[in-house]
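Student: Hello, beginner here. Can you help me understand the protein record under this note? Any guidance would be welcome.
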Amino acid sequence: MTTKNNDTDLSEFNVLVCVTGGIASYKSADIVSKLVQLNATVNVAMTDAAQQFVTPLTFQTLSGQNVYTSLWETAGEVKPTHIPLPEQADIMVIAPATANTIAKLAAGIADNPVTTMGLSAHGACPILIAPAMNCRMWDNPITQTNIQTLKDRGMAFVGPDEGYLACGATGMGRMSAPNEIVEAIRIMLGETEAEQA
């Protein structure tokens, strides 16, 4: 996927970036940085597993916003964060989306900030999923069924790509490059804006 307009201004948009526990989560920092450089307001939510790879402080520094890591933190808010964040967002992006997270979303399991926000985002904002996993996990029929379930429910996907994986294997499952994911976000935001016009 090629980037069309590097000067696109996203200052009118609020992007909710959700990070789950895969080695590709380090690329999510670049996604947040690129979106901020395009003037988008970026909020970040992380699973416990994601925090094993990248710290919340990284995303807080890049986004200039609080990072949401628990269903139990209120930070002075009356409403739980999993409801207002998707309501305020113009798009929710899950990058990386592990096989585990995809399976939970397909089954309606909401047991961490990302899956809970994914469930509550239904009808509030579009969801873009950037899968990242081992090639055998990607090829597993269960994973493919879960992906098709989410597509049938209106969720969009970008990637994955084929290439060298962190486990040492080569195959399908590498998360798309940050610039490709940002471009997919811009396309979806443009389509949403056009639908509202």
In short: The first strand starts at residue 14 and ends at 19.
